[in-house]
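Action item from last week, closing it out:
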Amino acid sequence: MPSRSRIIKFSALLAALMMMLSACSTAQPGEGGDEPRLIEDGKLVVAMSGEYRPFSYWDGGQLTGFDYEIAQALADEMGLELVAETAGFSTLVEGTASGRYDMLVASTTPTEERARQVDFANGYYSSGAQLYVADGQQCESIESVRGGSIGVASGTTYETYLRDNGITDNVRTYESDITALQDAATGRLDGALTDQLVGAHQIEEAGLSLVPCGDRLTTETQSPAVAKGNPLLGEVNVALQAIIDNGTYAEISTKYFGEDISPQIDNAPVEEVMNAAEGQEGPGFGELFVKYIPTFVKAAGLTLAITAVALVIAVVIGGVIAAMNMSGIAPLRWIATAYIGLIRGTPLIAQLFVLYFGLTSLVLLSGFWAGVIALAVHNSAYIAEIIRSGFGSVPKGLVEASRSLGMSRGQALTKVQVPLATRAILPVLGSQFIIAVKDSSLVAFIGMGELFRTAQNMAAAEYSPLSAYLTVSVYYLIIVLLLTGAVTLLERRLNLNKKGAKA
């Protein structure tokens, strides 16, 4: 029985993969020696997000900001050349732990989970979490939005704060704070939670109609970080104290905040976290896989819902465009050709962002419907070409023969062209459906909690991107295999009908 054989092979493959990953996830980078470990001699590779005004951001193609200038001052003090690199905030801790970066300077709050991955230096500023809401919204404290939808940047401590304090489980995660703040300003969210300094600066810069709700919720100290056991930590602490003592820190701080904020630095939380995390190890792949099953199953349901609705709409639109393209009326063919060229010539992520962010003044689409419409429109252009080529594959002689036997044009279409075209279309259409399932991962960038966003949140929370992204790959693989099996069964049914008709 081939189907049972495939299931057994697939189960064995998954089991072997999990065992391999469990072994890999416990591996630690090599340690040893008293000299600071640097990726390249004479250079200090420092990671930051580049999306966190006023701490690190791009200005005219140049990376700048408070974090950047502090990193530059530390590198100068240590006699090293600064090499600044940017990446998504949720990936920075793991990147530092794995040796991709020498040091992390990205307004990162030390937590026990993070301290199991990296060593934190002394703090370089203290701030805290602030809730921002739309101007005019009645909000006296965070209790005013209890149970509501609140946006945060992925990988920050704010999601944990909201859940642990019972504020809300309806947390939307974004790649950057500014995106969460923009959605709060449009009314898609009840509020956005971010650092007080960051929020105030970004709201002013972007001209958003947002105001703080209540007082600052927490006081947090942000620290540079290096890989576990790297003697570079001691040099960072010495350099940090030096730039505070010689006035370099005060000069940088005054430039961005109008005052020297070094007296506000509180190192007690950093020491407490590092002591608590000493000797602890994070969970392995198997433990994380089991822990996140309910979360991923829920996310898979959202992925399938978005994809299914989008594909139904895409097939309808694609059929209409294909009919126009095969029409004898020239203007209809021109419109269809232009539509297909425009949609296939622009990336899906750009179409999604135009719908979600670009049209807010005309229509305020939810994340679900922005994702559905973008996927539907994008796939409709490809489906239109699949349908057109399928009908083009039907020999004209068969159509002419059916007409000569007395069939009407409609009968020839339904009894000859459609059945034959369907057999040609189905395998290619199945492949397009599979592509659409995987393309649905792009809605993660507008805060939708589907499979890929869930993997990003898992990677950010557990600091194990290998486990997170291989876990989500397993779920996508299962969905694709089920979809492939359904298409194969349908093809077999059509082939059986074909053989029965011949008999």
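Closing note: The longest strand covers residues 43-48.
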